[in-house]
Every structure is written in structure tokens, then in C-alpha cells.
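Q: I'm building a small set of examples for a reading group on sequence design. Run inverse folding on the following structure and report the sequence directly after it, with nothing in between.
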């Protein structure tokens, strides 16, 4: 039974083992991206160090992937990573650690690099588009420098992109640079959930189709869909070639195109059940408890099959 079927059968409702926890020891960020799903408030943090033991226990006990999503690498982030790795080592437990960064601060974790399983550096498009979406001139080059630095050290970072009506401009040039750099790429169409500084970047379905067409025609990559509107747009593009199969490594459904492009659909409602958030105070927020299961839109689960 795949996760969607498990969800439909109600099995997941009582399952407290998430696939992944996303830890944000540092809630503040140096950028103010138009598409950021999180509030840009400058959170005032207490000087008292957070006790991460509960979170680390939880992750190790459930054999759960840990994604450190910053927002930038500050002392708080370093403290979490250090504690997680030390406790796991003392217990002889395997770690599963990924880090996402916008390129500005990843080097602060350098002494832990050999124990980090996966690096994600965010670059959203060509320089002009990326800098426009991220609101800071030169942000794209900083991120690219981080990618090249990691590759130069022998690591294999994933370039995480967010395509939007802003970043789809110049997308082809961006993909040329991705190809030349020989770097893996994962792209997510911009989501319209929560509060973003620019709440409605997509005004109609048309740019959505245009954006996805660019992705489907381009270099090999992982395309991550979370919104059923993107599934519908993809159906318009792929027609009869859109045949989903079960995704085994990630919860969701997948399509693999002959060009080497992988498309994965993971409805947001499913993410709610399989990914827990950890806030800057070390609280584990099981999203299934904060969202009403009755509100989850079953249609989005079945849309992929129809
Ligand atoms: S770099 Fe990430 S966390 Fe920071 S504003 Fe941009 S999307 Fe948000």
C-alpha cells in the first residue's frame, strides 16, 4: 500500500513516525524572498541556549531524516548540528542529515561537512531573476560560489530551485549554467500557501503551464509538484504520457520521462502527515495535529489518478 492508499485507509492517522523532520534553529534570514512561505519577521531570540535533546531523541528513535533549514547558519544552527552528531555518535546510531542554505552561510558548517549526507543550495533562476525574487543584488552569484565550493571539495550538492513567473524569465540560460556546472537540480513550482510577501505570483493558469513546459523540455532534473493545479497543468503538457507510478523513496507518485526528468507529486496534505516541523525553540510540531484532517482535500489525492 503506498502512502496515499494508507492515508485513504486511515492508517497514517495514528502513525507518529514522520519520514522527515525539518528543523529551523534559526528563524531569521538575511534575505526576503518573494516566495518565502515563512514570515519575514525579525524574531527576537532569547540568549538561553535551546535544549535540543528532545528533538534529537525523537529523530534518532524514529530513524527520521533531519533537514536543517536554517534559515541561515548561525551559532544556533551549529549548536544543533553539533549536538545531533555527537549524541548519535555516542549511541552508535546512524545519522541522516541534510542542510539547505542560500549560499551565504554554508561554510560555517565546514567542519561537519563529511558527516552531512546532502547539501541543498537554493538558486531560483538566472542571475537577474534570482536576485529579483530574492530581493538582493548578487545573491545568485553567492549561491553559485557555494555550489562550486562544495563540488570543489568533492561533495555533490543539489541545486534547489523555485520556478515562478519571476524566475521563469531567462530560465533557459539558467539551465545552460546548470548543465555546464554538472550539478543535480530539483525544481518546485512556487506554492501559494501560507503568507508570502507576494501572495499571488500566478494570476492565471497560463504562466503555470508555460513554467512547467520549460521544465519538461529542459535538462534532467527532479520536478516536485505539491499543488493539484500543477498536476492539471502537467496533464495538459504531457497528455497520454502522464502515467503515474508509485514512488518508493519519497511518499507520493512519480513519472519518469525518457529525457531523464523525474516528476514527483506529493500533495501538501500528504506532507502534513509525513513531515514534522521543529521550531526555533525545539518544539516538534506534528502538522497533522495543527491541521484538521477533515479539511484535507481528498480531491488533490485522487486528481493524480484521473
Ligand atoms: S532564503 Fe529561504 S528562508 Fe530566506 S527568505 Fe529566502 S526562501 Fe525564505
Amino acid at each position: 500500500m503506498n502512502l496515499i492508499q494508507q492515508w485513504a485507509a486511515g492508517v497514517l492517522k495514528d502513525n507518529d513516525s514522520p519520514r522527515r523532520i525539518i528543523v529551523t534553529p534559526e528563524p531569521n534570514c538575511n534575505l526576503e524572498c518573494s516566495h518565502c512561505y515563512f514570515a519575514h519577521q525579525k524574531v527576537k531570540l532569547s540568549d538561553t541556549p535551546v535544549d535540543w535533546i528532545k528533538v534529537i531523541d525523537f529523530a534518532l528513535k524514529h530513524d527520521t531524516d533531519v533537514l536543517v533549514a536554517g534559515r541561515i547558519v548561525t551559532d544556533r544552527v551549529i549548536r544543533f548540528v553539533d549536538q545531533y552528531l555527537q549524541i548519535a555518535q555516542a549511541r552508535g546510531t546512524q545519522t541522516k542529515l541534510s542542510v539547505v542554505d542560500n549560499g551565504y552561510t554554508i561554510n560555517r558548517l565546514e567542519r561537519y561537512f563529511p558527516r552531512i549526507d546532502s547539501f541543498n543550495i537554493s538558486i531560483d533562476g538566472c542571475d537577474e531573476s534570482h536576485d529579483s525574487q530574492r530581493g538582493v543584488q548578487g545573491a545568485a552569484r553567492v549561491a553559485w560560489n557555494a555550489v562550486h565550493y562544495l563540488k570543489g571539495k568533492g561533495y555533490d550538492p543539489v541545486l534547489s530551485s523555485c520556478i515562478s513567473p519571476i524566475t521563469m524569465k531567462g530560465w533557459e540560460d539558467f539551465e545552460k549554467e546548470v548543465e555546464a556546472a554538472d550539478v543535480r537540480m530539483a525544481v518546485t513550482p512556487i506554492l501559494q500557501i501560507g503568507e508570502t510577501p507576494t501572495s499571488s505570483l500566478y494570476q492565471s493558469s497560463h504562466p503555470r503551464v508555460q513554467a512547467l513546459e520549460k521544465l519538461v523540455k529542459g535538462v534532467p532534473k527532479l520536478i516536485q509538484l505539491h499543488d493539484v493545479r500543477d498536476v492539471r497543468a502537467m496533464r495538459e503538457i504531457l497528455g497520454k504520457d502522464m502515467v503515474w507510478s508509485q514512488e518508493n523513496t519519497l511518499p507520493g507518485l512519480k513519472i519518469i520521462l525518457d529525457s531523464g526528468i523525474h516528476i514527483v507529486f506529493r500533495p501538501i496534505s500528504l506532507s502534513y502527515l509525513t513531515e514534522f516541523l521543529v521550531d526555533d525553540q525545539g518544539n516538534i510540531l506534528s502538522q497533522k495535529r495543527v491541521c484538521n484532517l477533515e479539511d484535507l482535500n481528498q480531491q488533490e489525492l485522487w486528481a493524480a489518478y484521473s
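Residues 3-305 form a domain with the TIM Barrel fold (CATH 3.20.20.70).
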